[in-house]
């Protein structure tokens, strides 16, 4: 049993390898995470297309297996993230692309043992009716929920900051969608950084909405760097989450201020391998 002295909670951490260790090629990051003490990792969608070729997938799976880490989270294909896209769930005209991306992700998740998938909701599209986009979103989320249920997995939906056209800014924005959808395996992804930057009430999120949270991610604010570089009481909020009944993982999803390995000094080595 790891020594938890000095920690205010016992929640396990998983390392997000789409933001941490990005100074390394994608296929080298899982081994770097394992060398840093982590036994579980998560990724955004690790390919450029919704349906990568078999050789790409095989190489990715091999890199994970070689490292000996578990993959506990994957994003669905989000479109062109670098170009500003933030998901296809509500994007009219890209329904087939979304459907194929979901099938591809679920297949990869089944192969890796991953049972959590992040569905970025998507931006408001110029010329598209917002109500129509939201209706499409419910249809696409239902499709994704059905696909995930076939492997006993869940979908998470998150508020984002820094994306003006992305309509889900707060936990309540997501919960309204979940209420309309009515699927037990679709939950809130509570990214404490995004919620804080958007001015949400983290005390309410971490104590009232806990039962609807499927995953938690952290970065300090401002800056989205490692804990200790900003002003968020991250340990305090994680303590509140645990006290309110959250028993899931905490995704370490920040942009390292400095080399990735050095940026992890806030988290004792013995706390990294509990997942």
UniProtKB/TrEMBL annotation:
<dbReference type="Pfam" id="PF01261">
    <property type="entry name" value="AP_endonuc_2"/>
</dbReference>
<keyword id="KW-0413">Isomerase</keyword>
<protein>
    <submittedName>
        <fullName>Hydroxypyruvate isomerase</fullName>
    </submittedName>
</protein>
<dbReference type="InterPro" id="IPR026040">
    <property type="entry name" value="HyI-like"/>
</dbReference>
<dbReference type="GO" id="GO:0016853">
    <property type="term" value="F:isomerase activity"/>
</dbReference>
<dbReference type="InterPro" id="IPR050417">
    <property type="entry name" value="Sugar_Epim/Isomerase"/>
</dbReference>
<comment type="similarity">
    <text>Belongs to the hyi family.</text>
</comment>
<feature type="domain" description="Xylose isomerase-like TIM barrel">
    <location>
        <begin position="31"/>
        <end position="267"/>
    </location>
</feature>
<dbReference type="InterPro" id="IPR013022">
    <property type="entry name" value="Xyl_isomerase-like_TIM-brl"/>
</dbReference>
<dbReference type="InterPro" id="IPR036237">
    <property type="entry name" value="Xyl_isomerase-like_sf"/>
</dbReference>
């Amino acid at each position: 049993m790891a020594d938890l002295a000095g920690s205010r909670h016992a929640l396990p951490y998983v390392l997000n390898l789409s933001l941490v260790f990005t100074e390394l090629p994608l296929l080298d990051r899982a081994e770097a995470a394992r060398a840093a003490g982590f036994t579980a990792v998560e990724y955004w969608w690790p390919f450029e297309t919704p349906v990568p070729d078999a050789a790409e997938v095989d190489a990715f799976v091999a890199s994970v297996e070689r490292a000996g880490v578990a993959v506990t989270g994957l994003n669905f294909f989000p479109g062109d993230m670098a170009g500003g896209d933030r998901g296809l769930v509500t994007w009219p005209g890209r329904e087939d692309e979304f459907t194929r991306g979901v099938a591809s992700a679920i297949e990869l998740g089944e192969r890796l043992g991953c049972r959590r998938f992040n569905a970025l909701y998507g931006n408001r599209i110029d010329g598209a009716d917002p109500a129509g986009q939201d209706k499409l979103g419910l249809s696409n989320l239902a499709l994704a929920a059905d696909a995930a249920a076939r492997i006993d997995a869940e979908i998470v939906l998150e508020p984002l900051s820094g994306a003006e056209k992305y309509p889900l800014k707060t936990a309540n924005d997501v919960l309204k969608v979940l209420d309309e959808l009515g699927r037990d395996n679709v939950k809130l992804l509570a990214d404490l950084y995004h919620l804080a930057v958007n001015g949400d009430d983290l005390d309410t999120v971490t104590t009232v909405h806990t039962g609807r949270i499927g995953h938690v991610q952290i970065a300090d604010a401002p800056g989205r760097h490692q804990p200790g570089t900003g002003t968020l009481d991250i340990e305090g909020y994680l303590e509140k989450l645990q006290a309110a009944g959250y028993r899931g993982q905490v995704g370490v999803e920040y942009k390292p201020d400095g080399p990735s390995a050095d940026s992890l000094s806030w988290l004792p080595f013995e706390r990294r391998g509990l997942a």
